[in-house]
Input
Amino acid sequence: MTQQQQQGLQGPTPDDRPHPTGRRNSHGERIDPDTEAEQHPRTAVISALVENEPGVLSRVSGLFSRRQFNIESLTVGPTTVDGHARITLVVEETDAGIDQAKKQLKKLTPAIAVGELGTNAVRAELVLLKVRGEEPDKVHAITQMYEGQTLDAGPRTITVQITGDQRKIDDAIDAFRQFGIIEIARTGQTALARGDTPTTPGESPGESATATDDNQTLNYDD
Amino acid sequence: MSEPEPATQADSDTDEADESTETTPVANGSQSVIRALENAGVETVFGVQGGAIMPVYDALYDSSIHHITMAHEQGAAHAADAYGVVKGTPGVCFATSGPGATNLVTGIADANMDSDAMLALTGQVPSGMVGSDAFQETDTTGVTMPITKHNYFAGDADTVGDTVGEAFALAGTGRPGPTLVDLPKDITMGDTSREPGPAKTPDTHVHHVEADTEDVEAAARAIERAEKPLLLFGGGVIKADATDVARGFAIDNGIPVVETMPAIGTMPDDHELCLEWAGMHGTGYANMAVTHTDLLIAVGCRFDDRLTGGVDSFAPEAEVVHVDIDPAEISKNVYADYPLVGDAGTVLDQLTEEMDRAPDAREWREQCTTWKTEYPMDYAAPDDEPLKPQFVVEALDEATSDRAIVTTGVGQHQMWAAQYWRFKHPRTWVSSHGLGTMGYGLPAAIGARLAADDDQEVVCIDGDGSFLMTLQELSVAVRENLDITVAVLNNEYIGMVRQWQDAFFEGRRMAAGYDWCPEFDKLAEAFGARGWAVEDYDEVADAIEEALAYDGPSVIDFHIDPAANVYPMVPSGGANGKFALSEEQL
Output
């Protein structure tokens, strides 16, 4: 017996053992090997209600980067409740990935509630476009067409603001290309559930929701 | 509680006076921090002094809390981690800002990967200097964010005690894990008379204790009808103090058991239903069972890749019942057909309550027993060959009691210890699993010693490479006169790397051999510990007996067969059922 053989253990070799034919896919789901269907990524909007404390954005963005969740945009802002903030994330993941992202997000200590918004949710984002100012009338016409606003106009540049869902913004950017776009700033999508449905589970409004003098709130439908 | 000082005792023997010494009001943030620890029942902490943490240490001066000064902050973190593992309550470590905090990082990451409850308190430069790149400033909460369950930056002397209490409570609640509170010096030195309130977890922290009843019903039906059911116990069973419930569930239902490494000791190794631990270097019979089961009942485990091998071939014919307190573990790595989110012991009780009968698994049990005889963990140890590490592990096991605690570093020695020691009780196996931290063993032995009962021996089975990484902690064991026995399985290699190089890198042994190692027995003597060097089989028993008999730290340097390898082995990403029994099968 060589030393090498003595180093090993006794028993049937791998080839002499029975091996089951079942398989799992990369998500650990048992599958029929002949009709294997891998999950495809989809876009999901996740809303997280968090305690608005220092570092909370860093916790959320750090989580997404270290777990390699594909993130398209992240927006954050205060809510009707003092000390709470809403973070809206657009992610591109498989169903399993979205499920993980939501659960991991909920595990963060400052996270109060996490929900995924359905396809009928109200979504909007804002873009600022700085274009060349040679054709102000045409720029104005396109801005009107997209229900936008001119924020700054000079001899060389015009800056406009467009709001709306992602598709509208994409279309608007395409339409402004003819003038020569110098700079773009986009906010990323923010979203709320439609109607009476709370955006995150169990969410209830704070005191400021009943206040009547809050003219600061932008209403995109106006 | 604090011992009354002699002067107080002499001055007055009334209860009133005793009470006043125990409830000295807090005067500053540091005293509030220490009061929060006392309120939480903390008896022992591990740490290293330094500029920014000095106010906290100053408050410790008047406390009954026992502080162990470690040689290095990494040692403090590992000792606290191991203390918590053995004791079942969060371990606590202290470090100063900057390098003190960064030295803790490995130990915090280790605790995080193994879900060990631990609280780290770090000093920080005064709030006004934060962000200025001050002396010994590090963004500690930033650095430790990905490796803690949660961390805190204390911003107020009035509430710093509450924050520490909350961090301690959070560490041990739900799925355990490490928490950290960063303590700026102006906060700890800041005046406050506010006593910390009762420690509570943050309002946002929720965890389910009982699983959903419909889910329990579905899982119970699946278990009843299973023909080849297999229990997979993870470290969560021990953390939930559910060992007795888990054993009872297995025995009452006649279901064979495999364990993950952190769960070693949940089922006695010598029980007929116990197939020991599965995974990369698990037993052949455990890996056969995992491969052929039709219902895997996993309790408190996270399906780490060292357990599953390639997920595509993991338990490929099995439906999976997954009991875990952390919903994020459900279907993370392996899809759960029956997800049961809740406390391990509570959910097992729910299943017992719901089940009408045990599964009919007689044939399956016989199959598992057959595998035990087909794939024995026997090894040859001829007298004319160098000392076999397996022999040393077995000799240590025989010389110690059933409740002896084993700590290890990481590598071949760790695997031999896990394979050949016969574990009978939970919290007797203390190791670094998820992070795989070489050097864990000695500081863990120090932590374990302080948490263990006096009649429990503490044995650190170490490798030469692992021992070299933290052996400065021997100075602590000597200073504190801690009765621990370090058994170095010395092959003068980073042995597991050497084994992989031989198997997967055509024997090109790059940077795996030490060529020269210090004489560990003499090194031990230089530290003030006792040391032995052992080369032959006939010296093994005597050295162990003498080392165990010595009431203090001792080191036995076992010169083992440098060619010894760890088998069985499932190559990385391979199928558990295709474990190799020797190198040529890889």
